[in-house]
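User: Fold both of these, please.

Assistant: Here is the first one.
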Amino acid sequence: MAARMARLRRWSQVGRCGLAGCSRRYSSAGYPAVPLSRPLPNLPQPLFAPAGSGHDQHETRITVLADGLRVASQDKFGQFCTVGVLVNAGSRHEVKYPSGISHFLEKLAFSSTAQFGSKDEILLTLEKHGGICDCQSSRDTTMFAVSAEVKGLETVVNLLADVVLQPRFTDEELEMTQMAARFELQDLQMRPDPEPLLTEMIHAAAYRDNTVGLPRFCPTDNVEKIDQKLLHSFLRNYYTPNRLVLAGVGVDHDKLVEYAQKYLQGVTPVWGLGPTDVDRSVAQYTGGTVKVEKDMTDVSLGPTPIPELTHIMIGLESCSFLEDDFIPFAVLNMMMGGGGSFSAGGPGKGMFTRLYLNVLNRHHWMYNATAYHHSYEDTGLLCIHASADPRQVREMVEIITREFILMAGSVGEMELERAKTQLKSMLMMNLESRPVIFEDVGRQVLATGLRKLPHDLCTLIGEVTADDIRRVTAKMLRSKPAVAALGDLGDLPTSEHIQQALSSKDGRLPRVYRLFR
C-alpha cells in the first residue's frame, strides 16, 4: 500500500509540473536543462583520424604463393567470415568448347567430392559452423564462396579446396544438372521480368560470336553434349593456380595463407596435370541486332494480367574497368538512372535521374526506362532498357536515341554532384555487407593483383567533371549500336535507322511514310 501511495504522489507531481518540469528535477546537476539543439558545455573537441592514414592503407593484405595462387584478406570485426575461391574462367572462355560449361559448373558446385560423399554431407559439415555456401558464374569469373564462423576457417578452406579441385561429377549429378539447366532455360523464357534475357541478347548483338558475346546460359541444344570428359578438359586448362584467388573477409591473413599452403598448394586435381590451352582473345565489339518475336501475353502470373509489352535494349561500347574512363562512365550511368514506371520512393531511389525526369515523367505510356553499365577487363557496354506497348515501339526507340544524344550535351552542376554523391553512397552502403566486400576484394585482386580501397574510389568519383562526361559520351557515340528486341516487333525501326538517329544532332529517327498500316 505504501509503495502504491508513493507512485500516486509521483504521478501527481507530473500532472502539476508536466514532463519537462519532472525531467528537470531529475536531470544531472552538471548539465541542467541543456536542450538537444546545443552541444554539452565544457566537453573536449572530438579528434577524427584523417582518411587514408594509419592501417587502412594496408587494409587488404595479399600474398602470392610459390605456384602463383594469390591469397587476399581483409579484417572485419565479427564472429563470422566469408571465404571463397575466385577463378578467372567463365562463359567468355568457351569459344573452343560447346557453350554452357560454366553454367554446368555453377550447378554442379558443392556436390560430391573425393572427401565428401554428397552435397548433404557438405551441408552438414558447414552446419556445424553455422555455414552456408554458394557458387556463381559470370562471363569472366566463377566464384565459390562460404560464410561461416571464424573458428571453422580450416574446415572451410579444406572444403573449398576439395570442391574446386576434387569434384566427382557422377552420372547422377550430371543428369540432375541437365534437368536444372532445362528448367532454368524455360524459366528464363517465361518470367515476367525480361531483363536477364535481354542482357543475354544485347551481349550477343554487341560481341557477335566472340568472348563476352558467347551465351552465359547453356543453350538447349548443348545440354546433352556436356559430360565429365568435356568438363575435365575445360578445368584442366582454366583451373590452374595462377588463375585462382583465395579471398577472405573477417579472417586472420596468416592463418588463411597457412591453410592455403596446406590444402591448395601443390595439390594434384582430379583431372590431372598437363599442358594448358587458354583462350586469350580480346573482345571484339561488332554491334548489330538480335530480335526475338515473342507473344508476351503468356508471362502473366496470378489473377492480374501483365500488359503485353515490347522490350528494347540499345547499347554502345564504353570501356573496360581497367581504364581511367571507367569512373566517368559509372557516374554517367548513375546520372541516367531510371527504373520502372511505378516507384514508391523519392529522391533516394533515383527519381531525379534523367530517365525519370525526361522519359518516365513525360511519357505515361512508358513502362520502363533503365540504364545499365556492363564492364569487363577489355571492353564495356552502356545500354538503356525500355518497355512500352507494341503500337508505340517506334516512338519509344526515338525517345531512347534522343537520350543518348543528350548525354553529350550540357551537364548541370547539381545533377552531376547528385549523381556522384549517389554513386559514392551506393558504393559505401554496399560495402557494409561482408559478402560484397569479399567479392570486391576477390574480383579486384583476380583482375589486377591489387585492390583500390573505397576512399580512393570516392576520391576518383569526386574528380569527375562535366567535361569528362561529354568526352566519354562523344567517344561512345562513335560506336555502332547494339540492339536487342523482344516481343511484338512489327514497328521496330531498322538497325540503319537507329544508327542514323544516334549519328544525328537531335537523335530523331528518319521519317517513314506508309500508304497502308
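And the second sequence with its predicted structure:
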Amino acid sequence: MRGFITKKATILIPWTHPTLNLRHPTLESFVWNNLIRSTTLQPPLSIYLRMRRHAVVPDLHTFPFLLPSLTHLPLAHSLHAHTFLFGLHTRPFTQTSLIAMYSSCGCLNSARQVFDEITLPDTPSYTAVIHAYCKGGMVDIARRMFDQMTDKNVLSYSCMINGYVKCGEHAAALGLFRNLLALEGSGAGSEIKPNEFTFSAVLSACAKLGALQHGKWVHAYIGRCGMRIDVVLGTALIDMYGKCGDVERARCVFDEIGHDEKDVMAWSAMICAFAMHGRTEECLEMFGRMVDDGVSPNAVTFVGILCACVHGGLVREGDEFFKRMVTEYSVRPLIQHYGCMVDLYGRAGRIDDAWNVVKSMPMEPDVMIWGALLSGARMHGDIETCEVSIKKLLELDPSNSGAYVLLSNVNAKLGRWREVRHLRELMEARGIKKVPGCSLVEIDGVLHEFFVGDDSHPETQDIYRMLDEIMKRLKRQGYVGDTSEVLLDLDEEGKESALSLHSEKLAIAYCFLKTRPGTTIRIVKNLRICKDCHVAIKMMSREFNREIIVRDCNRFHHFKNGVCSCKDYW
C-alpha cells in the first residue's frame, strides 16, 4: 500500500508495479472492468481497490467506468494521478471521464483544466464540460462552449437544452430545440434527431412556462417520429399537461401508459396534477388505486397528497396521511411535507398546531416553512405570528423582497402608513426591489409576457382600451375594486387604478383582443393572485362567457360561469 500525494490530501490506494501482473492481464482487466461497471454489487472504488490488490493493471476502459462515480475531491485527485501512472491520461474516454468526475465533485476549475489540456477536444469532451458548466449554474459559458463545437450530436443538444431548463432559462431551451429541428429540416444535420431525453427536457420547459401549444406540438411530433411513449416520456407528458392547465389530457396520457409499466413516478405525476388543480377527491381516489395496484408511494406522492389536502381544507385527512406516510410506508418526512402541514393548519386557522409542527421538525425551518406560517397567520389576523415569521424570513434571507412586502401589507392593514413608507425607504437603501407581478400567455404558439403596469407591448394602446372596456362592463355588474391589499399610500381612486393594471388583467385584455369569443384563456402568473383579481376574473368569466385558467405560484384557478374551482379558498 503506497500513498499518492496531491496538493489537497494524501490518499492511500494500492499500487503495484505493472510487471508483476503476469496472468492474462487483458482477460483479468476485462472481468474487473465489468465488475466496476456493475455498481449494484459494490461501490466502484471498492472494486478498483481489490483489482489493484490482485496486481491487475487498469486499461483504457477502467477509468471511464470508475471516475464518474466519484464525488469526493481528494479521491478524485488521487485517481487522476493513477491515470498518469498508467499512461491513460491522454486517452479521449479517460479525459471525458475526468471532466465528468470533477463535475460530480463540484470542482468546475479542475474540470475546465482537464478540458483545456486536451489537444483536440472531441464531441464527448465538449459535452462533458458543457454539462459541468450547466450543473454549476453557468449556462452562458456552457452556451459559448456549445457554439464552439463543430460536430454537435443529439447528446450535446440534449445536454444544453436540459442545462437551460435546470437553470430556469426555459424560453432559451425551447429556442434551442427549434434550432435543432430547423437543422434537421435543412438536411445539413439530418442525422441529429431528438431522442427521449431531448423531449423530456423540452416538455419540462413547456411545463414551467405553461406553454400548452408548444407542449401539444411536441407530443404530436413524438408521434410523427414513431417513438413509443414509454413510462419516462409518459410521465413527462403528464407533468407538462398538468402544469399547463389541461388535466384531462394528462389523464388521457396516464391511461395510455401500459398498466404494468406505470411506476411510482407516473402515479405521483398524476396525483400531483390533480392536486395542483384542486381536484382533491380524484387525487385521493388515484392514491387508492395506486396502492391497490401494489405500487408503494414515495416522498413525491405524499407531497401531492398533502397539497391536495391543503387546497381542499381537509385537515383531518391531511393528519391521517402524514401519519400513514411514516408508520405504514416508512417514508421519512422531508421539509416539503412539514411545509404542507404548516400550510394546512395555518389556512384552517389552527395557528397553534402550525407552530407545534414548526417546533417539532428535526431540521431547521427554511423560508418555505416561515412563509407558510406567515400566510396562515396573515389570513386569520394573527399579527404577532406574522411579525415573528417575517423576522425569521429576513434572518434567513435579508434580500427577500416578499418578506418586506408582506410586512408592509400587515402595517398597511393596520393603517401604519409611516411604517410602510419606512420599509419602502429601507428596501430602496438596501437595493432590494419588489418582484414585479408577471403573467405569461401563449397565443398561436407565441409567448407574451406582461408586467404590472406594463406599457412595453407593441399593442399597448389597444390592450389598455380593451381593459378599460372590460372594467366598465364589470362595474355595471356591480364590481367594486378591493383596495385592501394595495400597499401604496394613495387615495381610493389611485388604489383602484393600481389594481386595474395588474399583469393578469393586462394578459386577459390581450387575449380578448387576439382570440375568438368562447376560447379558453390560460395564464401563468409568478405571484399569488390577489383578492381583487380573483373577484374580477370570476366576473369576467361570467360576463364574457369565457373559461379562464390561471396558474399562480400556489395552484390552479379555473374560472367559469362566475365561479372559481378553488371555491375562494387559496
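Residues 333-435 form a domain with the Serine Threonine Protein Phosphatase 5, Tetratricopeptide repeat fold (CATH 1.25.40.10).
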